Amino acid sequence: MVWTLLAIAAKRDWVVHCLDVNNAFLHGDDLQKIQEMKEHLDKRFSLKDLGKLNFASYRVNDDVALADATRYKQILGQLQYLTITRLDIACAVNLLSQLAASPEHVHMVAAEIILHYLKCTPGQGIVLASKGSLELEA
Q1: Euclidean distance between CA atoms 55 and 62, whole angstroms
Q2: Which of 43, 67, 90, 126 gives 85 a disulfide partner, CB atoms 3.0 to 4.6 angstroms apart?
Q3: Phi, psi values for residue 127, rounded to 5°
Q4: Tens digit of pLDDT for each residue in 87-122?
Q5: Residue 71: which of 109, 121, 98, 44 has the closest Cα?
């Protein structure tokens, strides 16, 4: 659903704002109303305003296939395992997994960006203790 909305927004050059309330997107021409909505949501939830959403444009045929995809597939397998506790990377890892049959250099770069993100955000995952309660706590 979100990917469809973003694809339409990119195609129509809509200005879309991304708020990290586990991803809320606001769209509209009235920037004052958007600002008011962000302030209203921030009072109820602790928002992290990511600002105006920028779309990366990349042509699929502009890249070369990886000569040896072994390392890419190893990294991808490790990332897939991490999605059990790091739900924040699940969407990106899933997308890269769909491209694993014929990975290109840009896909390896994307995997390395995810690794860099993980390195910069330790402690963001879900802790699953071997003993104790099975209840999740915020």
Answers
A1: 17
A2: 126
A3: -90, 120
A4: 888 989 999 999 888 898 889 989 999 999 888 888
A5: 109
